[in-house]
Each structure stands twice: as C-alpha cells, then as structure tokens.
Amino acid sequence: MTEEKCPQLVDYFVVAGLAPGGSAPLDEEGQQRGCRVVEPVTDLAVIARGLGEEVPEGFTCIEKTQGGHPAELSAGLINNPHMYLCYRRGHDKPPILELGVLYEGKEVVKQGWYMIETTPYSRSASLSSGGPATHRTFLTYRRAPESQALHTLGVTDISLLLPSKGEVAPHTFCRVEKNLNTGIWGPALYLCYKRAVAKANALVYEAGLISRYPEADVESFPLPESVPMFCLPMGVTVESWPLNTKYQLPVFSTFVLTSACGDKVYGAAIQFYEAFPRECLSERQSVRLGLVSVVDRRPITNRTLQVKKSVCVLSHWPFFTVFQKFLTFVYRYSISGPHVLPLEKHISSFMHNVPFPSPQRPRILVQLSPYDNLLLCQPVSSPLLLSGASFVKLLQNLGPENACVLLLAVLTEHKLLLHSLRPDVLTSVSEALVSMTFPLRWHCPYIPLCPLRLADVLCAPMPFIVGVHSSYFDLYDPPTDVVCVDLDTNTIFQAEDKKPLSWRSLPRKQAKMLVNTLTNLMKTLEKIYTTGQEEATLEFLLTDYDLIYGRQKQLELEIQEAFLRFMSCLLRGYRTYLLPITQAPSDRTTDCSSLFNLQGFLKSRERTHQKFYTQLTRTQMFTQFIEECSFVSDRHACLEFFDECVQKSDVEKPEEVRLIDLDEAHSGEHTVFIMPPEEPQEPDGSECPTHYSYETFPVLCMDLFDRPQDQLRVPTKGSAPSSPAPRRTKQEIKLAQKRAQIYSAVPDMWSKCLLGHCYGLWFIYLPTFVRAESAKVRALQTAYEVLKHMETRKVVLPDEVCYRILMQLCGQYGQPVLAVRVLLEMKKAGITPNTITYAYYNKAVLESKWPSTNQGGRLRWAKLRNVLMAVAQFRQPIRQRQKSGSVGSRTGQDIFTCYLFFTIVCKNKWPPGPRDTVSRKAVDENYNNVSPPSRGSLAGKLQQLLTPTRHRVSGRRAASVDARRSGGENGPVPEQRPSRKAQVAESLLKAKERLYNATSEVRGQHSSLSMGSDVDLPDTTNLAFPLRKSWDTNQEGAGLEVLMSSCSLCRSCNSLVYDEEIMAGWTSDDSNLNSSCPFCSTTFVPLLNAEICDLGPGSSVGGSPQVTVAYLSPLVLRKELESLLENEGEAVLAQGQLLDSHSIIFWNMVWYFHRLGLPSNLLQLVRSSPLTSENSAVRVRLLWDTLTPDTDHWPPLYILWRIHSVLRWVGMNEVHKGITLFLETIAKQPGTPKIQRSLYREMLFLTLAAMGRDHVAAFDKKYKAAYQRLSGSLGREELRRKRAQPPSPKAVDCRRSFLLPLEC
Description:
Elements: E1 3-5, E2 12-17, E3 41-48, E4 60-62, E5 83-89, E6 96-103, E7 113-115, E8 137-143, E9 153-161, E10 173-176, E11 190-197, E12 201-205, E13 208-213, H1 227-231, E14 236-242, E15 251-258, E16 264-275, H2 283-288, E17 303-315, H3 320-335, H4 343-353, E18 363-367, E19 373-377, H5 391-411, E20 415-420, H6 423-435, E21 446-447, E22 464-469, E23 483-486, E24 491-493, H7 508-528, H8 538-570, H9 592-595, H10 598-603, H11 610-617, H12 620-630, H13 636-649, E25 671-674, E26 713-715, H14 730-743, H15 747-772, H16 776-792, H17 801-812, H18 816-828, H19 835-847, H20 856-884, H21 890-906, H22 914-924, H23 938-946, H24 961-966, H25 980-990, H26 992-1003, E27 1040-1045, E28 1048-1050, E29 1055-1057, H27 1059-1065, E30 1075-1076, E31 1083-1084, E32 1087-1094, E33 1106-1110, H28 1114-1128, H29 1137-1141, H30 1143-1155, H31 1163-1167, E34 1178-1183, H32 1197-1200, H33 1204-1211, H34 1215-1228, H35 1239-1251, H36 1256-1274, H37 1276-1281, H38 1289-1297
Parallel strand pairs: 18-25, 20-22, 20-23, 21-22, 27-34
Antiparallel strand pairs: 1-26, 2-13, 2-17, 3-5, 4-5, 6-8, 7-8, 9-11, 10-11, 12-14, 14-17, 15-16, 16-17, 18-19, 23-24, 27-32, 28-29, 30-31, 32-33
Helix pairs in contact: 3-4, 5-6, 5-7, 7-8, 8-13, 15-16, 15-17, 15-28, 15-38, 16-17, 16-22, 17-18, 17-19, 18-19, 20-21, 23-26, 23-35, 25-33, 27-38, 28-30, 33-34, 34-36, 35-36
C-alpha cells in the first residue's frame, strides 16, 4: 500500500510586484490607457441666484438634472430664491467622503460631519422656508482626515435627480434617500454622488513575479503565469506621496483560477506599499511624479516614493479568513524586527506543518508567534461542493429582490459585470452566484476578480460573469449589452433599450417562496451579524469561536438551502423526461434532443411561464446538465443529492422541508496545536542574536526554507482505477442507514433488509467473479438470473448498486442488450434509476458494440452447427447400447432423440450442457430447495428408522466409517399405508430398538442409559467420543470439506444462540458488531466457526484446522468490504492475502454466499492457503448446531437420547406433553444440569433429525400452540426462566427469508 501526502493546505507562496528585470508599463511612460483623471471634490457651496449671488471662483455649478431639467434646490418655496449647488475639485485639501441631507429639528449633525449653513455671501443656505409648520433643510458632508488624503474613497462626481421625470441614479452613483424639496408643491428632488479612490501622481506597470515557493512546479498543479496579474489586478503603481501622509493599511483581495481540467484554485493576496528608490526613475518619470520641479529641475524633498507589492497564497481550499490572517502576520513580520528566525522559516512551517482539517483533527490551532494565532476548522460536511461562496455577503450586498434578479440573469445566461471597491467581496459574491443555480453549472467565462490587462473579455460575444474593481469605470465605459451590478450601492444597471430584468419573470409560486424566505433571513441577518470580531486571543479561539460564528454558519446554510429549494421545485420531475438509449447508437444519439423529452418537459410546466422555461432549456448550462445526468461524470454524488432534494420538495409545503442535513458524525472538539518554528540557541544555552530585519519585503531565499516533514503522510485512499464497481455515495449510504433504522422496527421487513445487503455483497464481489471466469457472458447471465430471482423473493434492496454493477460489467464485456434487459428488470421492480445508475447504463449501451442487424448468415451457420450436433446426439445412444449390449428401452430413447432433433433444428436452440445446467440450478433451484443430506449421518439413520417411506437423510458426519456402513440401509417400504397418525405411531414404536442401536454406535462404550424410563440422561462426565471427526472416504469427489456454523454462546446466561436469533438481535448500526441474547437480552459478539477437513483416504482423524472469526451482520460486512476495496483496490478479493489478512471478511462472505447459493471463487483461496495440505476440490457445508458440542454440558437430544417417547408426542400433535416430559426429566436429575440449548431448540433439532426439514414449519405452529397452552398452567415467566419460549417473530421471519439450507 503506497503512501501520499494528505490534502495540501497551501500549494504556493508568491511575491508579486515590479519584476527584478523591469516590468512593462501598461502604456508609454507608465500611463494608463484611456486614462480619465478626475480630481476629488474638496469643497461644496450653495448659492442663491435669485438674490444676485454668482458661482464662486474655481467652483462648478450643477444647473441641470440627469434628464436635462432645471436643478433648482428651492423649487418648492413660495419666494423661490433659485438656489443651486456648486462644488470644487482639487488636491489642496482632503477629499469629501460622503454627502447627506439634514432635517433641522428632527435630527442632529453626526460627529465628523459638517453642515452648509450659509452661502458664500453669508445668507442662509436652508433649502426650505423654515416656517412653524416645516423644518429647515441643509446639506451636510464628511471630509477625510488630513493624514488620509490619499487612497480614500472620495466623492468625485455629484448629480441631482427628479424621479417624477423618470430619472434614475447613474451607474456607480450613490443616492441620498432624503427629499430636498420639503415644500408644499414642486417635484421631489434627490441628491446622488459617485465615490472613487483619491489617487496620487502614479506610474502604472504590469505586475510580475518577484519570487515564489516552492521553485519547482507541483506536478498536479503547475503555477499559472497569470498569478501576478491577479495579485495586483490594477497593475503595479509607483506613487509620490506627501511626507505627512498616513501609512496605508494592507488591502486584502481574493480571486479564483480555473485549471484546464475544470478544478478551481483559490488565491488570497494582500496589497501593500513600501519605499521605492528614486535612483530607479528617469528624469521624465520624476517630473510626472512631482519629485522634480518643472522649471529648474530641482528635487522636491517633501515627498516620498512608494511602490505597490503583493504577497499571495494559492490553495485548492477557500479558507480565505485563515489565509488573510497568515498573510497579515507575514507582512507585519517583514516590517518589524530584527528577528532570530528568517521569514522563510515561518512560511515553510505554515505550508508543511499545518495539516488539512479532517474528522480525526477537526480543529487546528496554529500558533504563528507568541502574539499571533489562528484557528482552522473542518469544513461543513455537506453533499454540495466546497467553494468560496458567501451567501451571507450576497444577501447583505444585494438584498432579497436583487439577489433573485441576478438568479434570473444567471439562469438565462446574461452577461454580468460585478464591481465593487472591496476586492474580497467580489470573489465571495461571484462564487455565490454560480453556486445558487446548483445543479446547473456555469460553463461560460468566469473571472470573479478580473485584472485590468484582461478587461477585453467584456467585449466577448458570449455570456460571462466578471468582477472588476470599481476604479475600472474611471478608465472605461462598460459595453451596452452588459448587466452591471454595483455591490457597494446595491444597484443593477442595464441598457435603456432593453427590458429590465425582474424577479417576477421567474415561476410565480417558486419565486414568491424564495423572496419571502430571503426576506425573513435578511431580518435575522441584520439582528445577529456583527463585523470586526477580534480573534487574536487564544481564549477567544478556544471558547467563543463557535458561539460567535456558529449562528452565522447556520445562516449561511439556510440561505443556500433557500436557493436549493427553489431549483428543486423549478426542475421537479425532470428525470421522468430523460430518454434512455435502448438501441444501437447513431450520430444523433448523444444530442440533447435524443437524451431528453424537451417538449414533454415544457408541457408539464405552467403555461404562463413557458417563455422562461424555453430560455432555460436553450442555455448551455441546461444542455450540459442533461448530458451529465445521462452519462458518467465526476458530479454523480452531487446530482444524486439533488435528486433526493427534488423528491423531498415534492410536497404541499416545500419551504418547511430541510434539504441539507449536516453530517455531525465527524464533528468533534478535538483540537490539534501547531507550534511556531523553534528558535535556535547558542551552545551555552543563551538566545541567538537577531540577525534578520527587512527594509522591504525580501526576495525569498530557498536555502532558508525547511524541508517538508513526514508527519502529514497518511495511507492512500481511493478505489483502484481499474475497479469497475462504483462505490456508494454518501447519500446512498445515508439513505440505506435510514431505511435500516425503519426496517429494524418491523419484524417482517428486517429480514428482507438483511437479505438485500447480502445480495449487495455478492454484486460487489461480482466483478472479481466475472474476471476469474472463462465464460464471461455466462457469468453475466447468471447475475441477471440472480436479479430476477431477487425480484421474485421481494428482496428489499438498500440501494441500486446491484443493478449498477451489472450494467457497468455489461459495458465492460460488450453486452449492451443485456444492459437494456437489466434496465427493464429494474423498472419492473419499481425502481427508478438515479443519476449514477442511469449514467453507467447509457455508458454501457453507448460504448459497447451492438450485434449486427443482419442475422441471415449467422442463422444459417447456427442451423448447420445444430444439425451436426443433432447427428452426434443420434449416434451417442447407439454407441452406448453397443457397449452395454442392451437393446431395451429403445422406444424411450428414440422418442427422446426425435424430440431433441425437433428442438435443435426447428427451434434453432440447443439444450444447455452440463455446466450450464449446474450453473442454472445454482441460481434457480438452490434458493428454494434444500439439497438432501447424505445417508451416513446419525440424523439420517433416525430419519430412515422413523420415517422409512421418505428418502431424506441428514448431511452431518457419523462417528466412524464402519458405523456409517452398518447403519446406512433403509427399511422396507410398507405396501399399505394406514392413516397418518397411526402410521407415525407405528413407525415410532417399530423403530425403538433400531434407534437404540443407532445411537449406541455413536456413544460406544461410554453410553450408560437407565432402562427404567423412556427418556434417560447419560453420564456426561465421561463423554470422549470423536463427534464429527471421521469421514466417508467412499464419497464421490473426495477432497476438502469446510464445515461452518454461526451458533454462538452467550457468556452471560450460558445459552446457545442460533443463526436466526442472532440475525434478529442485530441492529441497524453498520458499526455495531453486537447481537442481543434472546434469553437474557445481553449484548455479545457472535462468532462464526469454520473447520477445514480432509476427505481423502488416509487422512488423519484429528487435527483439522479450525478458524473462529466475528459473525458480522450484512450491514457491517458491507461497510467493511467497501472500506477494504477503497483502501486496497478490488484485486485484493482474488489474492491469498484476503484469507490471511482479512479473515473476518473472507469467512463471512463464504458463509453468506453459500447460504444463498450464490457462486463465487472464494474457495480457491482455501485450496491455496496454508490451512490445507494439498490442492483438491473444496465443498462447504453450513451447520445449524455447533461444530463441536461441549461435552461438559447437556448433550444434544438428537444425538444421545432414546427419544421415541418425545417423538411420539410430537408425531401425535401433542407437543405440550413432550415439553412437560422434558421439564419433568430435568427436575429428576441430581444437581443443576448445565443446559446450553433451549427447550424449543432441543425439540426442533430432534424433530428435524427424525422427521426431516419439511416438518420445521409445522413444528413451529405446534410448539407455539403448546407454549400458549402451558402458559396458563405453568406461567409464562416460569417457562421463560426455563428457556422454553419459542423464538420471536423477527427470528422466525429471518429463518423464513433466508430459507433453511443449514444442516442439523
């Protein structure tokens, strides 16, 4: 078994910025293309033109609204002073950050805000009259602090709106939701403004790679060359700052890359500024940055030079919060110091020593330094794929209605452009958009954070989802056919010539349910959500983390569940319109129109929403979804989960149904601590000096990194690539567990549930069996017959694995017609194939070679072959008669020959050969018929003596060959038969002496029976007979014989518990090995015993090897078998190590397969094992009783007793007298007899040995009636104390369902 690394948390660490060799400018001299530099607004003023006031110098007056109407602020006043708003741009002051409106008397000015009370000419700047019935209205604003004048979101544009004239806020503008016109007439007037980053003088370059770790590419995931562009999407900027500028905090951003195979790779980066040397700039560049005066070229010393840089990690897991904390720590480590350890030690420690959270270690606390730590938790176990989506941020930034509008846009494949000034929000919301349409998958261009260099994708003639920084609109205008979504202002902008998207275009009932659910969740979100939780302390991480964020995590799932419920209702019933491939494929077989009944699906939907469904079915997403449902794909588990959601949602009130059930089985409180790198010490034990300090973020030195350690290596998990048996998905396992829990409480269903898992075991083994057989097609036909027989027996299958495996094997061995028959058999059984089974079926019929449609030549050759074989059949009896010299029975042979010839030539059929007959009998007959026991056993002698008219003998071994030969003859058959009651009594009386002789042969000289009573007890202290230790060497085909028994001893009450009672005591837990004792209700682990004996001549009497393993329920055995195949591959089932290393699984499989008469090659492993001495034929016999009865306890009645009196009462249908006789006999014995078998079991085995297996069902009825009769006289509790109660209905049903192939 090989080993590999567990899932790597971080794949690469990247430093991006100006490449060492120099980066190319985005345009000549580093100027941005199409640059529209707009200075921020620094001053506001209100003027009254009606009073003669003019626009101040340097100010711009807003005279028109967006629609070209007059922009008077005082239109509602009686004495209109014609007031207008003016603004001034510049860099001489800190920019204005926000605008507002204040109603005096109703509210007060907020801290940090300023109110425009007067005009530049010292008149009142109130926009209302301010009379007694009205309040005065003023404009307010908030300015950035002096130290934060750069890189802040300042106001860059202002506009006024008249909604009554149809005016709306321009794209990227924020609207102040307060009416400026508070007068009694005039239209409502609103203020809106645009915010952008207040930039300094800058040169912009293309981002390049500075350094990376590791240097060599990971084989499964090479480092993409475009990573630096995504780390710095707006390019690398070299900027000139004033000296008093406050240091800028790092900006966190995330992005998503898609590999060639479709896998997502998540990136987390922080952008920061560091000092840049002036010597690296040319004179022209220095002039552009304001570092040199334009006239005399003198250096300007009151400015600093900064360059933007980024550090990034790439991972296949979207742990964005964890990565942000780690990158922040790395950045802070680089700007502080000096340090003892280099920065590289911390990076390698995080990448190599922090394991991926798993069920064994669900919480990982990483101590980065004495003051920095982070907590890494196992992702929520859900059938949905893990992504970087944040549905909470989606709902926060868009609201319920706009979220539904974007759902409509994604379902109809519109061009979507998301933009925000927060780069990390772009990725979270974009991921949520492509996740909320599950199971439909977005296949068009998808770039959550698009670099400026790749902005040309917005002109692509295809649908896309692209996210950009809002500063993109400072440079370019978006295309007219793109739907722009501003996440900062929650506005959706579309071209005016198109009908705006509305969530009401969605199906009415489902859309209304979705909006109502999201509205309620939005209210809950506003109550509980708090930002800026401090997580630096260790106490918070260990105590308050789950308390603070547990509800947010639950809310995230509830929002996701709302969208999943909508999609389930939207596509309800889609599987009924899938068209399976039932004939030889053609060129159009794989077209969506051939795989899906599109018109039938559309007709089943509401007529009022036909337009929406027509648009949906024409999308690439829907077409790909149908193909994924029809053929094998890597999304089978997800699609099967969606089918289950569709089934759950098909109720009257789907909003009350939970669709996502969290798997809490793997959650735990176990926390693993990861310590920071250990600091070295001097030889004398003192601390090492601090050598490492950095002026800028360093270029990584590979020699300072630590090598990966081996503690993260774990065994490889995953099925062998060549394994044709698909594993059960988590949903199938969970559904099987739920069904088992339900059936365990229903006696007549529990046995059928166990039986279904037994057949599932055999079908899991079927690929190994077929591979070992030379006649592959015949083996597949046998499996098909097993399926038909399962339907006849009404077996309750826990899943579709039986059908699925056979379908896949049909495809593997080129039997498409048989695959179609399996599908029809599946539908006949009332089972609708799920996504996985349906895909493997289509794969089998599509990729296999179908038989030729021209059968003429083949039929003629088949007829010629049949004629020749018929002639051979004619000659065969003639040769036999010639050899034997017999001329009798000619008439019968001639009739048979004529019939054979008619069958072969006319019907073009050939009777099955000997091997076919055996194979068919193994499938058809062994299920319902029990093979007759061999003649030589004691039970056989008892049956011959007591019921001489029936030729049934038991298959148990006798004590010796001589005893078998002397007692094996049958008695004469009487010519006249009286009534059945008289016949049984007469047979019992006549058999008395012969029965005594037969039992004496077994007991030998150790038998000491008291002749004074009909039922006597021997001296059990001197029993030393070789029970079941001898062999009949005259048996045909002598070789190895394996005797197996599941009879187990309960150590608590010293009672033997038999097979059906063990089955009834099993639970539905597939990890529980215990069964419960029917007598004392104690749980115990039942055992399965096997004894391998040599039937050949000259074999030793003693020394037969015995094997004892745990007897597993089919549910537990299936789980263990699937785990074995997952870890070691399917080939282990055909190797000898299965018997040695996995003996429990091996012997349990042998037991169940032979119990049901299912063919297998497991016995070939017994022949080649060290347990046997030679290579010979092996046969298995399943015993009901123990292999070796304990001679220190009460011996079984069917072996040692003269039981004619008990049998007489049984035969006379007076079982209660037999029970009374047994109890009276025990009471007469001195001391307390050690009885292991219950009274029912003693009498059952006695009846079975004496009268045959056909009497078992009748005996159960008689015994139950006798027990009810004796309960009135002796008491039910007294009978239970003496273990005289019959088996439970659950146990009886288990025996009935598994039939009775066991020998006594």
